[in-house]
Fold these 4 entries.
Entry 1:
Amino acid sequence: MLKFNCRNTDSVIIGEENGLDLAQEFDRYGDKIAEIIKSLNQRKDKPEQNLQWMNLGYNEETVWYVKEFASMVERRFDNVLVLGIGGSALGGLAVTEAILKPYWNLLTPEQRNNYPRIFFLDNIDPDSISALLEILDLKKTLVNVITKSGDTVETMSQYMIIKDLMEKELGDDYRKNIVATTDKKMGILRQLADQEGYKIFFVPDDVGGRFSVFSSVGLVPFALVGLDIDKIINGIKDIDLELKSTDIRQNIAAQGALIQYLMDTKKGKKLSVMMPYSNRLKYVSDWYVQLLAESLGKKYNRNGEQVNAGLTPIKAVGATDQHSQMQLFNEGPNDKLITFVRVENFDKELQIPKIFEYTGIGYLGGKTINDLINAEADSTRVSLTDNSRPSITITIDKIDEYNVAQLLYLLEVQTAIAGELYNINTFDQPGVEDSRNYTYALLGRAGYEGSAQNIKEKMASL
Ligand code: PA5
């Protein structure tokens, strides 16, 4: 299980100006938190509540289908190419980067146990797409096109380019190299996938993109590269039981959410830093940035009042950022709550040889890089505390499917509870619609002619 340490947000440790009286706040908000957790669990099975992600640990049927598909295509492909953006890419990227052996795509097939390399496009940069297409042998590539809405412009343009190339290279057989993940009923990809006869996986109803990592959106790519998806599911199931507790003292997601909320509303900590001390968890920060920003950044609350809620997420990685952002974190504006993720046991132990004993670096000899990175994590936490900077530390025993799944699920539940405390809709994203509509207009999509004129006039005057 994960360890969650929030002592460094307590006023006893960092002083009253920046810290919270945790015991008092847990008492004061205990009933409210219990009500929120009860309500989330009561609403989760109801349609249009967008809470079906809370059931993904119990979706045995999907797990079965995903495993069956993965075993059918095993050893047929050298590459998996995931087309998607935002919630349709970031979870997959975060989990595969964390669990697969580092530099996976540079390993030989034997070193990868003959599982394929994996690439996520997650953008529409013409140079990087072209460069990747020069590297990949499309005959040996399985393309997983993922879009819940089925018409996201970035994903569908990636798909159109690649489908066309594949058809030219593979003839009719290209269809065997494409698998679609999309909504059951709606969207253009759903229609096309049926028409083309692709294998299809469905994103369950009421699971939004940034909460979809444990649906087929993530599970398909995970299984294709040999991750143990049973362990992922068991991780979620086990922590889900704990996160259903209505007692804030027993529920670390509730504690994290309340601390985030109070640090923002009472102590002015509007920035939220995610800082794992592990390169393999770097993309967990990218995933979390989207989760936090899109979920809590809202203009209106549920009563229709303008609140402009939200915490600005910041990505950092230890120890690298000790030589970059840490100066700011420690001495700049005291407006941040930092979440550290610390790994107790790395897969490898790397010994520092006992050389240069006659110099100032001699003390390092005989230690391990493992000792060093965790000593840096601890010393940074303490020095931030000395400067009255609040931080939370989540410790995972080791990086594997079980623990990483628990970490992500914890952050999802924490974000959902925080959304309830802010009284906002955690699961919509109206703020991205305007620019999406302008893009449609600029590219001449039918029905957007009025907006096209409007944006052209605005662009000319800006
Ligand atoms: O969290 C979300 O809902 C968004 O970030 C979506 O994941 C993103 O916009 C991609 O949407 P879609 O899966 O419909 O292509």
Entry 2:
Amino acid sequence: MAKQLQAIRGMHDILPDKSALWQYLEDSIRGVLDGYGYREIRTPILEQTELFSRSIGEVTDIVEKEMYTFKDRNGDSLTLRPECTAGCVRAGIEHGLFHNQIQRIWYRGHMFRHERPQKGRYRQFHQIGAEAFGLPGPDIDLEMILMTHRFWKALGLDGLELQINTLGTSDERAGYREQLVDYFSRNQETLDKESVRRAETNPLRILDSKNPDMQEMIAGAPALLDYLGEISRAHFEQLCGGLDAAGVSYVINPRLVRGLDYYARTVFEWVTTRLGAQGTVCAGGRYDGLVEQLGGRTTPAVGFAMGVERLVSLLEERLSELPLATPHAYMVLMGQEAGSHGPILSEQLRDQVPGLRLITHCGGGSFKSQFKKADRSGAAYALALGEDELTRGVVTVKSLRTKEEQREMTQQDLVIFLQSVI
Ligand code: ATP
Ligand code: MG
């Protein structure tokens, strides 16, 4: 036998058994996005490497060690997107979407990061995210957070905690940075090797460290909130006020700095304790400097991205309660005549009952084996058609999930019945 090939480490197949769950999640989220007037954008999975090194920042986990970067046949350096904000901004500049316009957009798709695979952390994973361009105030930050809050309602997920913080402006951060460097140099002995290096290149990122031995030291570090100017402070207070008024609870986490360099002012995460170390299911914030940094005109922007695999794991906990798209009916066919009439009847039913999910049996076999397949398909009803039914012009309808009596129906009654169950 020929050698079998396997998927690349950290990259997973989503098999048909699982895809209904993914679709349920994607459809629910899409419905909410529609409800807020966000429109979808689809950007390429491959971009020039420079797009990411210029936007995400040279001194970040992603750019330093996680990107899938390679030279193509022309010798150009390309990278599989590790996130989609940079691509959205690139596309927006390229197509003039930011000129005197407000844009509310969303995206979904694969992202790639060469990380150590573990539960909730993969090398190919999926994000759904949204971005709003052209709005500088806290009103849109609030809208974004309220929208994410509504996602959880739509999906029936509870127990997620909203953490928010503000990173101020880059000037405010510069003043704070000095205090932070000073604090870290007084705590040199607690810093790990990477943090010693980052104390010089990007000290704020040390606050984001996952190293358990450093958490106590990090908790004692000075907080940026104390270094904010008037406008940043007011921005943050208005956001908090909006959340209070909407009845959405939150905690202010001064250690929340986010992994990417382009954030300013508002940052937020939704966190759960149910997924172990990989507890952040949604992360976002304001990134007013990015459009300019990538060659566009100064454009305020705010956005977030959700880790779909992590949300799927949470949904799996309540799989049995979810309205997943299983077939409504499975048509069982006995004998040659039924075998040829069945597909025609199925077509007519599909015409007459829009939205009907019907599997027509193929491949023959005994009644028993066909009913087994019907049962395994997850269908609610079996529609049986044999010689006897054919001569009498009826179909036998049998519930596969409840103890309902089986019934014979004419095609006309069957249509009415199917309309009532879809
Ligand atoms: P972390 O601190 O967990 O590495 P991050 O700051 O790198 O997260 P973002 O770049 O903000 O993550 O991505 C947004 C969301 O995408 C994360 O909150 C998470 O839910 C998801 N995500 C990020 N990296 C991965 C991955 N390798 N596998 C699965 N999901 C991921
Ligand atoms: Mg990461």
Entry 3:
Amino acid sequence: MFNLILFGPPGSGKGTQSEKLIAKYHLKHLSTGDLLRSEISRKTRLGLEAKKFMDKGHLVPDEVVIGMINDALDNNRDVAGFLFDGFPRTAIQAEELDDLLAKKNTCIDVMLALEVSEEELIKRLVKRGETSGRSDDSNEMVIRARIQEYHKKTATVADHYQKVNKVVMIKGEGTIEEIFKRLSDEIDRLMKLDNCV
Ligand code: ADP
């Protein structure tokens, strides 16, 4: 298997690049944001509970997203690998993910971390809010709260994988194709190695 975390702050292009990467490498895309939005649109209990946090720009509690990821891993047993997008977002989620993968005799091969300036992030998110229909994109206060949550709770997830030398920084500004090429070049290089032994 080849398991990859696409990492970066809100608006760094994880969703856009994930779509292209899963098509090229036949990985299963697991986006906790998409999974949560699907729960919300189906008005499930989990979705209604999660929405309260998301509308404020706060993170949803760890046990909720870990449960969703656990189910998704179990429901996708015969895949070439996973692309995690928007997960893990806290140190606890990272530890749980490592344990869940270890039970399946695999691991995270790499964290590709997109770097984008704060000014560019806000510009992109405000623009996305004009068309996406996402309530958390349509209010600059909520956008700023999400970026704050990222700095407070999520940025440390990179330290977790840095300790085992699995973080590669990728410049997240430029055209979509340029960024896609930077990501693909790294993946091509890493796929030749066996990182989970
Ligand atoms: P973005 O990264 O652009 O903010 P996402 O679609 O990844 O968008 O996430 C939207 C919201 O869903 C987050 O602000 C947060 O409330 C919630 N969320 C998504 N993934 C997680 C996670 N792994 N842990 C906690 N909350 C999450």
Entry 4:
Amino acid sequence: MEESDLKSLFGRRYLLREKMLLFTIVASLLLISVLHYVTTGDAQALHNIYLEFYYIPVFLGAFLFGLKGGLVTFFAAFLLYLPYILISWTDSVVPEINRFLHLLLQGLFALGAGFLIDRDRQRRDQMEKDRYLAGIGQVATSIVHDLRNPLVTMLGFAKRIQDGKGNQDSNIQAVIDSAQGMERIVDDVLDFARPIRLELQQEDLRQVVDHACVVCKTKAEEGGVKVSRDQPPEPVRTVIDKFQMERAITNLLSNAIEASDRYQTVTISTKSSDNSVSVIIKDHGSGMDSETLENVFIPFYTKKSKGTGLGMSIAKKIIDGHLGTINIYSRPGEGTKVKIEIPHAVPPTGLRGN
Ligand code: ADP
Ligand code: MG
């Protein structure tokens, strides 16, 4: 289901709940008032009970609309009850004082409940705003921090080139490496921030996996990690966005390589079933503790000194866009298995995620 669909569903539910509460307020006000008017004779005790019932709509009014709602409901109750006071007016002072005291208490109750509910809502709004601003601050700090390291390296080597120090070729290579590192961070942030536009086509998933392996080849070689492919001989046909899927698989594969020790093997297998296609990336590396497992899809969550913490979030966003699932099985010290599954049903082309 699209996020906008979910929002409108919750919006509709919320509206329905409000309408039902509003109906309950009006209905209970009318019902309690009618009870007063139809209960004749000197069943005074009953009238006292009915009077207490007014607390219900007054509370609901305050709950739903805060101070204004509480006071409006109270005045509505008062106006509905006023004719009854006048009709049943007696010369004995005590019952009349009793009634007015009751009404006064209800008015105070409306004021108090409405005030507390308004204050609580204001506090919650403020907390949400604070959390939002803190989130933006955290994201900005994280990006700036990630960009700073390669920038400092780049400046250092540019200065060496300017001063003619060291081997010029390796100085230039270091500048290029740092610039590429920065480009990767910028790409990750952009990918994460913008909606994913899927261009769906019938593809052979094996080719997508092959290409992801080529992209990760240098990383695997540098880390001394072997990447082993387990693919069926026949094409694994599915409707996907080749570019995006490759990006998701590359992120997962590169994490598996980074988590592995020298001489370890990462296996990537592709399978097709009647309803779906799947890719499983299995490593025997560091594995994840429960805290990492819990947070792995949270943007900017990383345990690496040079990580952006966006790889898994981007992969999830892409898989979600294909209406697929991504599951992680991992134990510290034993390695990790990441399984992505994409259903065969063709999702409509267009913007996915946010
Ligand atoms: P990054 O790789 O930049 O840290 P990711 O979003 O790709 O960001 O991953 C987030 C974190 O999840 C990593 O820092 C790492 O701790 C953990 N992680 C992801 N994949 C694996 C894996 N295969 N094995 C162990 N830990 C992993
Ligand atoms: Mg990563």
